[in-house]
Amino acid sequence: MIFRMNTELGKKTAVLLAMMPFVISVIFYAYASYTRHKDNPKDKVVPTFTQMKDGIKRASFEKDRKGEYRLWIDTWASTKRFLIAISLLFVGVIIGLHMGVFPFFEALLLRFVLFFDKIPALAVLPILFIIFGLGEVSKIALIVMGVLPTITLDTYLRAKRIQQEQILKGFTLGANSLEVAYRIVLRQIFPRVLDTIRLNFKAVWLFLIAGESLAATAGLGYRIFVMRRYIAMDIIIPYVIWISLLAFIADWAIQRFIKWRYPWLGYE
After folding, report:
1. Residue 204 pLDDT exceeds 70
2. What is the pLDDT of residues 8-67, one digit of tens each?
3. Residues 207, 249, 222, CA angle at the centre, nearest 5°?
4. Residue 268 has what pLDDT?
5. pLDDT tens for residues 159-183?
6. Helices (H), 102-135
7. Cα–Cα distance between 34 and 183 in angstroms, integer?
8. 158-193: b (≥16 Cβ within 10 Å) or e
9. Neighbouring C-beta atoms of residue 243, cutoff 10 Å
10. Which of 85, 63, 32 is nearest to 237 (CA)?
11. What pTM was computed for the model?
């Protein structure tokens, strides 16, 4: 059954199988925490679930010395940066579309984008801090530098794969070049481009946390690196889980949108 390609799973079975890795991970962590605390009741590296619950309760519902609820302030700061960066990534979609459709833009930009894509964004972070300072611009610029070239090249490759017959058909029906690009090519590749963007959420969070860890006064990544100084794993682990949950929700939302807007793609 496991290695049969034509196996049909019931809904309950599929749900149970999906939950199994999570349950195994929780059991494994609980055992590791129990073992370490049995040897050292003051262990901070692998906190118990009770300790993590208390830690997240303090961060969420108890004001700090500044009178702020740290988790929600950090979540808002990181989410705002995340959304701004994601909105700017759609510029890469337009650039990639033009590169894939118009020979002038392909000749002008393709080699530059290919070269730009190979620059390690984290290596440029000190330069961004020098140019833009330690504010929001440098953090968002880091994310854009790290992810936008990938989105641009993916869009370019998808646009190049559109059959020439469809483009010629558009011209035959009286469309001009821009109408063919945006009403024929972009409409076909946009769902898959959205897939590429959501699959890069991990990279977006990576660069966001890197920027926050070096220069920020609020943010999920900033808080994790502050807590690292005190080995406050009861705060760090819930924060990591919270970041993952936010990224998962954003990914799920885009999947639902694609399924609703483009039902012919067969999304489950």
Report:
1. yes
2. 888 898 899 999 999 999 999 999 999 999 889 888 889 999 999 998 898 888 887 778
3. 35
4. 56
5. 999 988 888 888 888 889 999 999 9
6. 103-117, 121-132
7. 59
8. bbeebeeeebeebeeeebeeeebbeebbbebbbbbb
9. 20
10. 32
11. 0.87
Q: Which of 147, 109, 146, 92 is nearest to 124 (CA)?
A: 146
Per-residue pLDDT, 10? 84
Domains and CATH numbers, the chain: 66-265 (1.10.3720.10)
Q: What is the pLDDT of residues 74-109, one digit of tens each?
A: 999 999 999 999 999 999 999 999 999 999 999 999
CA atoms of 86 and 67, how far apart (whole Å): 31
Q: Which regions of the chain does DSSP assign to beta strands (E)? A: none
Contact criterion met (CB below 8 Å) for 159 and 97:
yes
Give the whole-angstrom CA distance, residue 268 versus residue 256: 9
Measured distance CA(147)–CA(32) in Å, rounded: 36
DSSP structure class, residue 42: T
**Pairwise CA distance, residues 66 & 237, whole Å:** 23
Task: Express as a percent the part of the chain with pLDDT over 90.
Answer: 63
